[in-house]
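Continuing the batch. This is chain 6 of the set; chains 1 through 5 are on the previous pages. Same settings as before, nothing changed between runs. Recording input and output for traceability.
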Amino acid sequence: MPNVTTKFNLAPLGWSAVAAALLVAVAVGFGAGGAEAQGPVKQAAPQVIDTSSPFSHDHHMDAVKVGKAMSCNSCHEMVAASGQCPKAEVRFPTHQACAGCHTANFYTQPLTICVNCHKSASFSANNPLKELSRQVTPRRAEFSHQSHAGNSCTKCHALQKGGISVAHPSHPNCCECHTQPELLPQMTSCEACHSAAKNAGRPASKIHGFSHKDHNTDPRNGASTECKQCHTNTEQASSLRGIQAPPMSSCVSCHDGSNPSAPHPSIPNANGSGAFHFSSCLRCHLPGSIQNVPLPPGHPTDAPPEGAIQ
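Output for chain 6:
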């Protein structure tokens, strides 16, 4: 049995969420008391539902498993007050939406329900939401970059953390165009994007600590680096799984270990790159991710030249 004497500061959840949980609890208690007075019918107290596993949209959309039919609007506030653009955080439901079914989970330790959306289970108003990833992804999301060719990458993929990483697009990005009546699908057509056979994520990466900020400019000539110099097939990809990870050839073109204070050894009118030689595998690759793995076709095997930056 949960320790009902444990005290929490409920303010961080938002008083509307607390009220929702308490109203359900009071209603159950009232129903139980009334039933006791009238006869044998009793309502059970709110049950703690196991939320220790990663959140599953498929589970919540299964009417047999959850006991009722649910839609996107059951949890997500899909539109703003204007009735058009989704709210910025439509990807995460409000506390009230969760408390409607998971009442007891909001006041019973351990608070595993928190980490379905937040980065930790700390009971704080400053508990940041998770970033979208292969683990935290919209239900069965699919997207065609090919049909969006002609738009700049940063129109949807904003730079974040000072340019180090690139944001995963969310509904507000789509809203900029898909509220125009002639442009399909419309924002209210959830299944147009969320009906793939399975959750389709970006390619798994074997690179650690990559910084887009450090690769914004080509050090050999000072020119801006275009996204497609590394993401070579993205514009042609009609699905998320069709996007290939940047090929080794896009790295080798700069990572030649040449001296930035001297002319480039093979490129006219260019300085050395200053980038470490590509043979220093573990400068980029995660330890254990490439050992005993055959080199992909076209992967160079050149030894670093004398004096190359390692």
